Every structure is written in C-alpha cells, then in structure tokens.
Amino acid sequence: MSSIIIKDLQVAIGDKEIIRGLNLEFSQGEVHAIMGPNGSGKSTLAKVMAGHPDYQVTRGDILLDGESILELEPDVRARKGIFMAFQYPMEIPGVSNANFLRAALQARLPEGEEIDATDFYQLLYQKMDLLDIRREFTARAVNEGFSGGEKKRNEILQMAILEPAFAVLDETDSGLDIDALKVVAKGVNTLRGPNVGILLITHYQRILNYIIPDFVHVMSNGRIVRAGGKELALELESKGYDWLKEVDAEPVGAK
Amino acid sequence: MSSTANSVDIDRDVGNFFYNLTPARDAGAGLSERTIDYIVDVKGEPEWLREFRKNALRVFTSKPLPTHWAGDELKEIDFEVIRYYLASGESAKRSWEEVPEEIKQTFERLGIPESERKFLAGVEAQFDSEAVYSNIKRAVADQGVIFMGSTEALKERPDIFRKWFGKVIPTGDNKFSALNSAVFSGGSFIYVPPGVKVKHPLQAYFRINAENFGQFERTLIIADEGSEVMYMEGCTAPKFTTATLHSAVVELVALPGAKIQYITVQNWSPNVFNLVTKRGLALEEAEVKWIDCNIGSRLTMKYPSVVLKGRKARGEVISIALAGDGQHQDTGAKMIHAADETTSNIVSKSISIGKGRATYRGLVHVPKHLRGCKNNTECDALLINPSSRTDTYPAITVRGTGNSTQHEASVSQISAEQIFYMQQRGLSEAQAMSLAVNGFVNDLVRQFPMEYSVELKRLIDLEMEGSVG
C-alpha cells in the first residue's frame, strides 16, 4: 500500500512564506479532508505536491513511499500516481478531450508501445457512463467553453481514466451549485476505494455531506492546527473559522 | 532532453549535406544568355521559348531585389554561384548505405514510407516511382486527363500549353517569377477536360521523383469547364538539397464551373530561400482553393493568390506556417476580386519558435464598381518562446457599397499554467507543447488529406522537442 508523508513542510512564493511547518500522512484507501479559511495555504499545498514551478520548498520534504518527490518534474510525479484536480482547470483550444486523455495515457506507456484505439475508447466510454457524461463530450476541446460544473466533472473523468494512487482535489466544490456538487461528489464516491488515497481540499463543509471523509484536518496560517474524524467538519460548520484566530496552537501532526 | 535535442539538431543540419558529385551535364554556375542557350539546346526546346526565356532574363536583371518587405536576408543569395540547370538523370546520386544513420532514424520517426525515404535522402528510387507515376498517368488518361512534366507538355501539347503559360503569372510579375521564366525546368502540367471529375488526387511526388526534383519548377494546371481536380505536392520530410534557392511558379486556370484544389506541404532545410509565386484564375462560378503548409527554410516568401475573374467565382487560401529558430516565414494570400458576387476566404495560422519569425501578408482587393462581393480573412499567430516574433500586414481594400469584408486576427501564447496542467496529467513539457500547437492548427490540419495530417502532426512533435528544456 502506497503512502504519502509530508514532513515539516515549509513553502514560499517569492519572499512570502505560505506553508510553515506542515505535517501530514495519508495512505491509499483513505479520504482526508483539509479544511481552512482563505489564505491558510490549502491550495498551495496541492500545487506543491503536484510540483508547480512557482513555489519553492524551503524546508521539509514530501515522500512518496519513502522517497522524496521534490526534485521530480510535475509530469514525473503524475506518472508516479499523483493526480491533482484543479480549482481552475485550464482550457486547451483545439485539443479534444479524447485526444488529451489518450496522450496522457500514452505518456504512461514505455517507449515504442502504442495504446490501442479500440481499447482506449472502450475504457473512455465505460468511465464516462460511470460518471454520467454524454458521448459528444469526447470531441469537445479540453475545458473550452465548459461551464464550471462541466470543468469539474471533466477533472473527475480524467482522474477516473488515469487511476492515480493519490488524488488531490483542490476546492473541487468551489463555484458549483448544489446539483453540480452532487454530481461531482457522486463521481468521487464512485472512484473511492482501496486503490486511491484522496486529499479533499475545501473551504466549506458542504461537500463533506456527500463525500464522507475518514479524517479531517484544519489548516490555518500554513499549518495544520486540528485533526480529527468526520465530526470535526460538523464542529467547524457550527463554529466557523473565527475560533482559529485564538488558536496559536502548536502545529498538530496528522493521525 | 539532450538525446532528443540531438536528433533535432541533426534534423536541422540536413541542408548542409554535401554531394561530392559533378553532374556531367549542367549549365555551370551563374546566369547569362549562354546559360539559357545551353538549357534550350540541351532540352531541345522550341525557339519561341528561347526568346521567352531571354526576355525573362532581361526582366529579372532589371528588377531590384524586393528587400523592402520581407527583409534584407535576400541579399545573402549569391546568384553567381547558383547552378541553374542540372540535366535530367544527371543529378546527385548516392547509395542508401551512405545515408547517415541519424537521418534514417529521422525518417523512421516521421513514419516516411521506405520508398520515399530513399528519394528524400538523395538516393535514386526511380524504379518504383516511375511505375507508380505511369500507373496514375494511365488511369487518368482514360478520362482524357493529361498529366505530364511541363517540358514534355510544351513540346507535345503546345496547343493547350501556350494558350495559358505565363498568362496568369506574367514574366514581369516580380523578380523571382522572371527568374523562373528564364530558367525553369521540371514541374507538372495537367489538363482536365470539360466535366471530368478526377477521383483521386494527383500527386506531384511520384512524377517529380521520376523526373528529378526541380529547383525552378513551373507548374500549369488547367481545369476545363465543370471539371474538378486535386493536386498535391511535397511531403513533410526535410528535403535533402544542396540548392539554396527554390523559386517555383505555379499557374492555375479554373474555367467556368471548374474546381481546383492545390495542396502543398513543404519542409525545407534551414538554408533554403523559398521564393514562390502561385496564382489561380477563377472564371464564372469556378473555385480555386490553395491549401499551403510551409515549414523550415531560411526565408519563405509565398502568397498564393486567386484572381476572381468571373461572376460568382470563389477563392480560398488555407495556410499554416511554422517558423523555427532563425527562420522567417513571410507568407499570406491575395484575393483580387474582378467580378460581381465573387467570394474569398483566407485562414492563416502561424507558429513561431525560438527566434523564428512569421509574417502574415495579405492583400484583398474589391474595386468600387463591383456588387455582392464578400471576403473573410482570419489570421492567428502562436508564439512559443518570448523571443519569437509575428507580424501581420493585412491590406484589405474594399470599395463600393454592395461589398463586405470581415477580418479577425489574434496572437496567442501557450501559458505556463496550460503547460503545468498538461504536465500534471503526465505529459512531458515537450509533449504538452506539441499537443497545444497541434490543437492550435487542428481545424486547418483536418482539411489536409489524411496521410499529410498524420505526417504534419509528427513533424510538429519533432519541432517542439527542440523548443523546450
């Protein structure tokens, strides 16, 4: 079973420190929620795990199965099984969803091996059916002209096709109305299972009504300040984030 | 990245190939009346052509180099060292074994069929292509279609050839059309009789291969009333040539109701000056469509044109230009509306890589007295690196009240966030770039025949490998 261990992580963008000593550990098969107010560093954590070039890790480490991934290019991390669902998925004009996904799968094969077109479409249609996505979707350009809900659903479809060991969902619920949220949550629940570890980053408790986490972490000011089970999310819902201002607590390690 | 970068470097050195062979029959270096006498005598051409060529030489000499638009690079051409004529069957030869392994690998990666590889590497492959060419020739001859070399045509079918030769593009059109008129050899001649619709595209590849590749080709295609023909020239593999100047003239004549589609995909080595004049004449309700893809070369100057001479004639130019590092693609289109209710459409996309420069230069002319004319012009440029450059010069003159035009232009870049997004899905930076570039030209590439679009995609992949990292 694969695991990710984040040790004493410290991250800056330019001179600005965003994550200040974060510890977190999660494994395949688990769903962890990270909650926190705006500016607490949640999205930065997602991007650093994916290897976004704008962020510098100034201290600490991120280990995948015991090995540091910090020196790895974003595409190498992706091929090692780390997937990130973007808060703002990018549009790629002229590139169809089918071609994009095919290229992504192809990139995972050894040199000289070609993906079989029939097999690919079979897989694609199967996953699309699973997520209630209509067939004409395959020919549309990646995220181009998509509604907010469609973009998020597309992220989940990509996750379904790529079958990552770990998926970091960065505010996948943001900007969605309740119906779109339910659709996306249903998709995530469908993919949930022993082979994937999910890190669900969210500002609101709402999505956790539909995707029940195994663990909840509260992030504030670049650290995890509380950790607990799913009931912690409900506590936050009633108390809000204001109480965090009074907590100048020691950072809390997960689990 | 280094290993792939190497293979691309090799790719780019193709123009430096050196054939250590002196053809027994050539016109020597430099250009004079003697060169022309030599060409006319060796080829056994009629006297009228001798006069035509000599007149063209005078025009060529009298015209200044057109350095005022695309740039000063033209001054690098040394007209005195160019060999203007290599006799048929006497050009450079070498064996497949002599072709460097890296080049063979490039062909492999491009997926070039075995038979074509030998031709492209400068190895003779006459047998195969001659057989294919004569098959095609025989098949279309049954429909009365004439498909032959222009030299052959001017001797065998002077009745049709002389009627149109030099009429669409007169000698004095520009300095390089004059040069071509003076020294042309090679190129195709096609005549399609009234009402005949040629089912399969006619491919220059097999014909030219059977005859030798010409650096001053002259092509003339006449589609008689109500006929249809598609012609394809070039291929996406890098051309192995020692010639640094390619200056072709292509004339198309679409008689009333006829349709001509002319497809070009060319990938020149980076030392070549590619200065080509292409123009079609469309009579009543006729249609001329140029689909043009230019890759490589030091400088390409090419503006396929359509003169819309008959009522309801249609003209179209679809073009893709890819300017690699240090290359300049000065391409575009011209639409000359000369009759009522004529319509024209120009869609141009360019990609500039590294210090590459792509220029769109268009001319749309609709005079005041015409009615019901329409033009649509779209030009989009994609810049890959911060040092890449693009310019647009769309000269659109639409006069009179009953005519309309629409013009859209855009410049875009592939953002770092787009690349990160694709990398997060497992694509390398180069693969991500390729995918985005292919997406940019995708709607145009779909208009190319299948085998060309596949090659084009591979070629973009290769070019992009060298542009990142």
Protein architecture, described:
The complex is a heterodimer of chains A (255) and B (469). With 255 residues, chain A is an alpha/beta fold. Chain A has 7 helices and 12 strands. Chain A has helices at 42-50, 74-79, 97-106, 117-130, 148-162, 178-191, 231-239; strands at residues 3-13, 16-27, 31-35, 56-64, 67-68, 82-85, 92-96, 141-142, 166-170, 197-202, 215-220, 223-228. In chain A, strand 1 (3-13) and strand 2 (16-27) form a beta hairpin. The two termini of chain A are 17 Å apart. With 469 residues, chain B is an alpha/beta fold. In chain B, the strands form 2 sheets. In chain B, strands 1, 2, 4, 6, 7, 9, 11, 12, 14, 16 and 18 form an 11-stranded mixed β-sheet that branches. Chain B has an 8-stranded parallel β-sheet with strand order 3-5-8-10-13-15-17-19. Chain B has helices at 2-12, 33-43, 47-62, 101-110, 114-120, 126-141, 150-156, 158-164, 175-183, 204-211, 416-424, 429-445, 450-465; strands at 146-149, 188-192, 202-203, 218-223, 228-235, 245-246, 249-254, 259-268, 273-282, 287-296, 299-302, 305-308, 314-323, 328-337, 343-352, 357-366, 374-383, 389-398, 404-413. The model of chain B is unreliable at 1-24, 88-94, 121-131 and 206-213 (pLDDT under 50).
Q: Rg of chain B to the nearest angstrom?
A: 22 Å
* Most extensive interface between two protein chains, with residue counts: A-B, 28 and 24 residues
Structural class of chain B: alpha/beta
Mean pLDDT of chain A: 92
